[in-house]
């Protein structure tokens, strides 16, 4: 949906179901396999020449596990506020200058989803790789197995006599 700047002052909060199939196809079937559901709303406010757009969405993705490459459902919540302007002098790190008469909500929502996916995704039943000769373990597993509490790295120096 293309939200026109001229209409933002008349809108405050509205439900919107984005059409993200085009964007999903454009990146191919990588980590994101499908978008099972996306529900939420958009709030918009005009502050002079700056437009504040708040996105509130609950999303359920089907993604591939980083460990097993098997698909699983990954729920996420998006609560972001972005600022836009049509005046180039207000362009800054926090305010995005737009040289069109509209904002493409679908594109923005899709980019918010993609940027909030973590680098490593583990399914609920995923286990680290394990063979007869090695295994991958988390730091918590390592500490609990070795009953180790790593103190200061300088603790190793306490028994050394530096006066000799």
Descriptive notes:
- There is one protein chain.
- It is flat and about 75 Å long.
- It has helices at residues 5-8, 21-27, 105-115, 139-146; strands at residues 2-4, 13-15, 32-47, 50-64, 71-85, 95-97, 102-104.
- The protein has a five-stranded mixed sheet, with helices on one face. It has a two-stranded antiparallel ribbon with strand order 1-7.
- It has 164 residues and is an alpha+beta fold.
- It is 18% helix and 35% strand.
- A hairpin with a 2-residue loop joins strand 3 and strand 4.
Structure class: alpha+beta
Shape: flat
Order of helices and strands: EHEHEEEEEHH
Query: Biggest β-sheet, characterized?
Result: 5 strands, mixed
Poorly predicted runs: none
SS strand fraction: 35-45%
Biggest sheet, spatial arrangement of strands = 2-3-4-5-6
- Alpha carbon gyration radius: 24 Å
Integer average pLDDT? 84
Helix content: 10-25%
What labels would you give this structure?
single chain, 164 residues, alpha+beta, 5-stranded mixed beta sheet, two-stranded antiparallel sheet, 4 helices, 7 strands
């Amino acid at each position: 949906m293309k939200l026109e700047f001229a209409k933002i002052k008349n809108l405050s909060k509205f439900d919107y179901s984005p059409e993200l199939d085009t964007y999903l196809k454009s990146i191919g079937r990588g980590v994101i396999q499908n978008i099972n559901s996306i529900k939420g709303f958009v709030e918009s406010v005009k502050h002079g020449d700056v437009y504040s757009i708040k996105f509130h969405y609950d999303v359920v993705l089907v993604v591939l596990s980083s460990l097993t490459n098997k698909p699983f459902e990954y729920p996420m919540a998006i609560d972001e506020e972005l600022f836009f302007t049509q005046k180039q002098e207000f362009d800054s790190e926090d305010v995005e200058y737009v040289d069109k008469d509209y904002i493409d909500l679908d594109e923005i929502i899709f980019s918010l989803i993609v940027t909030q996916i973590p680098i490593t995704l583990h399914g609920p039943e995923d286990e680290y790789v394990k063979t007869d000769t090695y295994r991958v373990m988390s730091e918590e597993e390592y500490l609990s197995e070795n009953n180790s509490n790593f103190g200061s790295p300088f603790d190793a120096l306490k028994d050394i006599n530096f006066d000799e």
